[in-house]
Design goal:
alpha/beta, 386 residues, globular, 14 helices, 2 domains
Length: 386
């Protein structure tokens, strides 16, 4: 199979950064303001405006942002938080960080997102929150989720993959009590590591803002620019150090200005993949929303194990030999060793997640790829049938 193509190496993802991001950090070094400060504040303001929310709080990662959101809501031992069974492990881990119990719900095999029809059976009087994941950039069906959970259950969007995505005309991050984004290098915009918590709830945002800074009543920026330098902040809360640096904020602000361009490019090439690969009978294309915008953090196909010429893993090995990087979509969390040991889960407990774990395949889609790269990926996949 590999002989039919000129050999090259196409990465599954690459951050799209350059001189602008490097130059954006210069002012931070010149002013000496390296920790959370004016660049972070500007990034937060711009991100909030972009996602139609009143508040945005920059943090060290999406994981710490999710933990911060749950901690701000006071979730702890004895509480339950509903999470999808097919997601990156951090979605479930943060529940355990709070001493609460993650309650898994299976996912739909066509969207990879939490299945709203299976949520109601998992709601109890101990359910305090649900964390729907907008997996790979496709928003979860928030209206269907709202219809089956009580108003007292907070909706925390895991929008790690969803910067710039929308649901029925509403931006991701504005759909629940809070949203949490990731700026890891595999995401469409990056600050290296980093994340953002969004909300339209002023009381939530005020408390979360204090808790990300050790519980301090005033920020470092307020303290250093205040008229009384001898004052230290009051600490009336047990908080965390989840602050983003101004270096990251400067990079994030530059990256955010490119988000629309990045997503437009990804939409163009996702449509190209769908057009070119749709006739392969054993490869199911990802779902495109009829109302809303997919952010295309990743292009994740589903390999039909009954009709494919080889197993998903064997096909991935063949593509790797042809220079095309691929990855499984993500984890079935209930099948990971820690969760199996702690909760005695079995693979068949969540069959949708089990099957997505075994059969999803992400192919290269990022803003560093050329026209020739995309054509090469398509030809490589088509060559698998020969």
């Amino acid at each position: 199979m590999s002989e039919v193509l000129d050999q090259r190496k196409i990465h599954i993802a690459l951050p799209s950064t350059g001189e602008e991001e490097w130059l954006a950090t210069r002012e931070c070094f010149e002013t000496g303001w390296l920790t959370q400060g004016p660049k972070v504040a500007a990034f937060e303001k711009a991100f909030a405006e972009k996602h139609s929310v009143q508040h945005a709080l920059a943090v060290t990662s999406c994981t710490t942002g999710l933990h911060l959101a749950l901690a701000t809501l006071g979730i702890g031992p004895g509480d339950e938080v509903i999470v999808p069974a097919f997601t990156w492990v951090a979605t479930a881990n943060v529940v355990l960080y709070c001493g609460a119990t993650p309650i898994f719900v299976d996912v739909a095999r066509d969207t990879y997102n939490i299945d709203p029809q299976q949520i109601a059976a998992k709601v109890t009087d101990r359910t305090k929150a649900i964390i729907p994941v907008h997996l790979f950039g496709l928003c979860a069906d928030i209206d269907a989720i709202r219809a089956v959970v009580p108003d007292t259950v907070a909706i925390i969007e895991d929008a790690a993959c969803a910067a710039g995505a929308s649901y029925k005309g509403r931006p991701a991050g504005s759909l629940g009590t809070a949203g949490v984004f990731s700026f890891h290098p595999r995401k469409s915009i990056t600050t290296g590591e980093g994340g953002m918590v969004t909300s339209n709830d002023g009381r939530f945002a005020d408390l979360a803002g204090k808790m990300r800074n050790h519980g301090a009543e005033i920020s470092e920026e307020q303290r250093h620019q205040g008229p009384r330098p001898y004052l230290l902040p009051e600490f009336n809360l047990l908080g965390f150090n989840y602050r983003m640096t101004d270096l990251q904020g400067a990079v994030g602000l530059t990256q955010l200005s490119k988000l629309d361009q990045f997503i437009a490019e990804r939409q163009k090439w996702a449509a190209y993949y769908v057009q070119e690969l749709a006739e392969i009978p054993w490869l199911r294309m990802p779902q495109v929303p009829s109302q809303g915008q997919h952010a295309w953090q990743a292009f994740v196909c589903y390999v039909d194990p009954e009709t494919a010429p080889a197993s998903r893993n064997e096909l991935m090995d063949l593509l790797e030999k042809m220079g095309v990087s691929t990855r499984p979509g993500t984890h079935a969390v209930h099948m990971l060793g820690y969760y199996q040991e702690r909760f005695a889960f079995h693979p068949q407990d969540f069959p949708g997640a089990r099957d997505c774990d075994a059969n999803t395949m992400a192919i290269p889609l990022h803003n560093k790829m050329s026209i020739d790269d995309y054509a090469y990926v398509v030809n490589a996949i088509k060559a698998l049938e020969k």
